[in-house]
Design a protein that fits this description.
The complex is a heterodimer of chains A (617) and B (350). Chain A contains 20 helices and two strands. Chain A is mainly α. Chain A has one domain (19-553, 602-614): Cytochrome c oxidase-like, subunit I domain (Cytochrome C Oxidase, Chain A). The two termini of chain A are 15 Å apart. In chain B, a hairpin with a 3-residue loop joins strand 6 and strand 7. In chain B, 38% of the residues lie in helices and 17% in strands. The chains are: A mainly alpha (617), B alpha+beta (350). Chains A and B meet through helix 3, helix 9, helix 10, helix 11 and helix 12 of A and helix 3, helix 4, strand 7 and strand 9 of B.
């Protein structure tokens, strides 16, 4: 797919290339592929849930299996689909947008990917021995009491992938701070880069809370401590706090990059610069900051008392203000523009009303008095799917259509794109709008069955029909990918002709060192500035010279496999102490790789000036 | 443009919404038709926020539709470059200040309501009930009354009833949508809430926090009766003699089997507050069996012979020797004649 693999050939060599790659673009594609795989798994789980709820007292699946389905659906979608898909985009696009040759720590980038991937594999292997069943929030004491090893897989799988996410976040922060092209000041960074930056800061602060929670849970379940065990003096509410101190910012870890995507697409297809750029950046920070301050709104009914509930209610409502600023700025980016509507733009335009509804129900939920009715009901399910699907999934699909030609050099098929959009869009609203009413009509979330004669039949049936529409839309999109792979129309560097940011200034797909010469950035939307002045390409900021690149490495993969083996050991040593061998062997492999990495000097390699000149762009 | 978002359409939209919200769901389950104090307070805010939100949504959609119609690229405009507008300070201030005002309009009643619903300063003057959440049933102990029951909660209408709630195992959440919002029932601390039903009725309650396989089957009923009927019910419950031998011979046999199979290890009849399983004092008056089944003898036999098929993961399964059909029928006969009071769900209009 990229140019540098061309000099190798054969399946083995290609596979080795992908397993050892430290190229941010290939790692981005790996994230996207793995995320898509988990997305399909999570989608299948969702469909099974909706089939179970198609009619009252249905017995399609058992109560125990149903709880495993809801747990795995939520966990998979948040940790192994939405987050990695966004990380894939950030990995691929952000370095291009700031004119960098790679991320700051390419080795760490690869390690982050493999940790996430094996975490996801670990979680899903639990299907063979009994999956976690305490909900994706894994509340104690239910999670402590859960029999079998399901919850242990949850704990270890998330711990592995969480470590990967954390190191990727740190990597992005350092990359953006240190590796911007000459002239790219902070206030000239594209919004997607800005949101990647702010998201990474959120990751840096939020994931340690999850790590702590998971460690305590791990010790409670595997080593006999009692942090959450009330009978032994623990407190189960602490889990809820730790989980939501991570879990609420996680929502913004997902939605801020989505905002970034839309802030790129809208200017490109309305031929206008982003309206209120400064306000958009400021709003992003404000949302991130407030996002950290409001976790207890998930706990209004826990019994924290009226003072805490009031403070968290008002703080939560405040988030509506910067979010509103964003919505209006997007609308006024369109205003007065010359709007092209294609598949990428359809997802973007559909986002505005869908997310507005999701945001507004968020304000409704923030009113704690009313939340006593909404909480843990289908109203909440409706709300967060409007935010996560109407925001994040729409953004991912928009981004796929927008950046696909950049990443793979071919346009996705427009007709199939539109068919997928309309079926998914209609299905989405059918599925989730009615759920707000189901909740208020007395249907709590995570219900395996609803009883007859409770007035909930019609709503659930409509919701399930919608889920089938969404499934159809996703399948069309998958077919589109295969069609495009074989027969898609080829794309030039500036694939849409109205590209404004630096990623459009290089080839499609980009050469493996991204830019022959570092571009000189002379303002916001640097490529647009050059085009308006009649230049076809960026002004270089440096003379043509040899380029220093990092070597690939198999160590991240082996290191991850080591920790993966150790995790299995931790889980099963509860049954038999012989499993401690796996802990020691796995840890030895992991630590050994670290040692090799530390002791061996790897200076990378240089691409000669002649070769740089030969590469087309 | 006018035709699409004209006045009549907006009016229609709002009235359709109101209609939908007023008439939605089963009347003794839905939160949209409030019949109690907490549900009223919640409904006030649901309506206030809904109307504000619909207003905001209409404004957003108006700008959105106008923009998309007016500024779509037209034929022959391929080379047209629109003016590159940086932003507009005045507009930014407007769409910052207006949302702040709207948020304040919602925030003030929210804070007032939050404190109002948490106020337990007058608890001593009212009925106090200890509620215990269990997988997957509810235990009710009327403080100072020596009345214990489960699954069916009797309360007087027009009066605040304070609930002091604790869980015996995992976190549950106590929710009667048409009377009041929910409150979590935690294993570590007693949470207090009050409920008040305006009119007589049998209101359906749910567990709202995932608590295991039968989470969705952890239903209960709140039976609101007039204060006089409530007093009568309490007196009837207090006068129950747990040792009383039933008149019917099949029921007598059932009583013996009930004792022989150690059912009393978990269940109590009378006001004994401690129990692993539901208190059965007024079992024959219950509106349901196991919280979800119609109260018929067939259902009770089904439940007694194989509880697992009715409520997966319940703690009664395998706790007693297998019962023959006849044995189960005798026990059912015994349990269904436990009818200490004339005040039943029917009195509340079920």
């Amino acid at each position: 797919m990229s140019v540098n693999s061309a000099h190798k050939s054969g399946f083995g060599a290609t596979l080795w290339d992908w397993l050892t790659t430290v190229d941010h673009k290939k790692i981005g594609i790996l994230y996207l592929a793995a995320g898509a795989f988990f997305f399909l798994l999570g989608g299948l789980e969702a469909l099974i849930i909706r089939i179970q709820l198609i009619s009252p007292q249905n017995d399609f699946i058992s109560a125990g299996l149903y709880n495993e389905m809801i747990t795995m659906h939520g966990t998979t979608m948040i940790f192994f689909a939405a987050t990695p898909l966004l990380f894939g985009l950030m990995n691929y696009i952000m370095p291009l947008q700031i004119g960098a040759r790679d991320v700051a720590f390419p080795f760490l980038n690869s390690l982050g990917f493999w940790l996430f991937f094996f975490g996801g594999i670990m979680l899903n292997l639990s299907w063979f021995t009994g999956a976690p069943d305490a909900g994706w929030t894994n509340y104690a004491p239910l999670s402590l009491q859960s029999p079998g090893h399901g919850v242990d897989f949850y704990v270890m799988g998330l711990q592995l992938s969480g470590a990967g996410t954390l190191m990727s976040g740190i990597n992005f922060i350092v990359t953006i701070v240190l590796m911007r092209a000459p002239g790219m000041t902070y206030m000239r960074m594209p919004l997607f880069t800005w949101t990647t930056f702010v998201t990474s800061i959120l990751v840096l602060f939020a994931f340690p809370a999850l790590t702590v929670g998971l460690f305590l849970m791990m010790f409670d379940r595997m080593f006999g401590t009692a942090f959450f065990d009330v009978a032994l003096g623990g407190n189960s509410i602490i889990w809820q706090h730790l989980f939501w101190i991570f879990g609420h910012p996680e929502v913004y870890i997902l939605i801020l990059p989505a905002f970034g995507v839309f802030s790129e697409i809208l200017p490109t297809f309305s031929k206008k610069r982003l309206f209120g750029y400064t306000a958009m950046v400021f709003a992003t920070f404000l949302i991130a900051f407030l996002g950290f301050m409001v976790w207890a709104h998930h706990m209004f009914t826990v019994g924290l008392g009226p003072v805490a509930n009031s403070i968290f209610a008002v703080a939560t409502m405040a988030i509506a203000v910067p979010t509103g600023i964003k919505i209006f700025n997007w609308l006024f980016t369109l205003w007065g523009g010359s709007i092209t509507i294609n598949s990428a733009m359809l997802w973007t335009l559909a986002f505005i009303p869908s997310f507005t509804i999701g945001g507004m129900t968020g304000v409704m939920l923030a009113s704690s008095v009313a939340d006593y009715q909404y909480h843990d009901s289908y109203f909440v399910v409706g709300h967060f799917h409007y935010v996560i699907v109407g925001g994040v999934v729409f953004a991912l699909l928009a981004a796929m259509h927008y950046w696909w030609p950049k990443m793979f050099g071919r346009y996705l098929h427009e007709g199939m794109g539109k068919l997928a959009f309309w079926t998914f869009f209609i299905g989405f609203h059918l599925t989730f709008f009615i759920q707000h009413f189901l909740g208020l009509m007395g249907m709590p979330r995570r219900y395996w069955v609803f009883l007859e004669d409770q007035g909930l039949d019609a709503g659930n049936l409509i919701s399930t029909i919608g889920a089938f529409f969404m499934t159809f839309g996703v399948l069309v999109f998958v077919i589109n990918i295969f069609y495009t792979w074989k027969k898609g129309e080829k794309a030039p560097g500036d694939a849409w002709g109205t590209g404004r940011t630096l990623e459009w200034a290089t080839a499609s797909p980009p050469i493996h060192f991204n830019f022959k010469q570092m571009p000189l950035v002379r303002g916001l939307d640097p490529l647009w500035i050059e085009k308006m002045e009649g230049n076809n390409k960026m002004t270089p900021a440096e003379p043509m010279d040899e380029i220093h690149m990092p070597n690939g490495s198999i160590l991240p993969l082996i290191m991850t496999i080591g920790f993966f083996i150790a995790s299995y050991g931790f889980i099963y040593q509860v049954d038999h102490k012989a499993w401690l061998i796996a802990v020691y062997v796995g840890m030895a492999i992991g630590m050994g790789c670290m040692l090799i990495r530390s002791l061996r000097d790897d200076h990378g390699y240089h691409i000669s000036k002649e070769e740089v000149e030969r590469e087309g762009d | 443009m006018k035709g699409w978002m004209g006045k009549s359409k907006v009016f229609f939209l709002i009235s359709a919404m109101a209609l939908l919200m007023a008439g939605c769901g089963r009347e003794n389950l839905t939160a949209l038709d409030p019949k109690g104090y907490g549900a009223d307070r919640a409904m006030d805010l649901i309506l206030l926020t809904t109307f504000i939100m619909i207003g905001v949504f209409i404004i957003v959609m108006a700008i959105y539709v106008i923009t998309l119609v007016r500024f779509r690229k037209k034929k022959g405009q391929e080379d047209y470059i629109p003016e590159q507008v940086e932003g507009n300070h005045k507009l930014e201030v407007i769409w910052t200040v207006i949302p702040i005002i709207l948020v304040l309009v919602i925030a003030v009643p929210t804070v007032l309501g939050t404190f109002d619903l948490a106020d337990d300063s007058n608890a001593d003057e009212h009925v106090n009930i200890e509620v215990t959440g269990n997988q997957y049933w509810w235990h009710f102990n009327y403080a100072g009354e020596e009345v214990v029951t489960s699954q069916d909660l009797y309360i007087p209408t027009g009066e605040r009833v304070y609930l002091n709630m604790l869980s015996s195992d995992v976190t549950h959440s106590f929710w009667i949508p048409s009377i009041s919002g929910k409150m979590d029932v935690n294993p570590e601390n007693v949470n207090t809430m009050y409920i008040e039903a305006h009119e007589e009725g049998v209101y359906w309650g749910k567990c709202a926090e995932l608590c295991g396989p039968s989470h969705s089957l952890m239903d209960f009923k709140v039976i609101a009766v007039s204060p006089e009927e409530y007093e009568q019910w309490v007196a009837d419950m207090q006068s129950v003699d747990p040792e009383e031998v039933p008149e019917d011979s099949v029921a007598q046999e059932g009583q013996e089997l009930f004792e022989a199979n150690n059912c009393m290890n978990c269940h109590a009849i009378g006001s004994s507050p401690a129990a692993i399983g539901p208190n059965l004092t007024n079992f024959g008056d219950r509106s349901t069996i196991a919280g979800i089944l119609e109260p018929t003898k067939e259902h009770l036999v089904e439940w007694l012979t194989d509880p697992e098929s009715v409520k997966p993961g319940n703690k009664m399964t395998d706790q007693y020797p297998a019962l023959s059909e006849d044995e189960a029928e005798s026990i059912a006969e015994y349990l269904l004649q436990l009818q200490p009071s004339e005040i039943t769900p029917e009195s509340a209009g079920n």
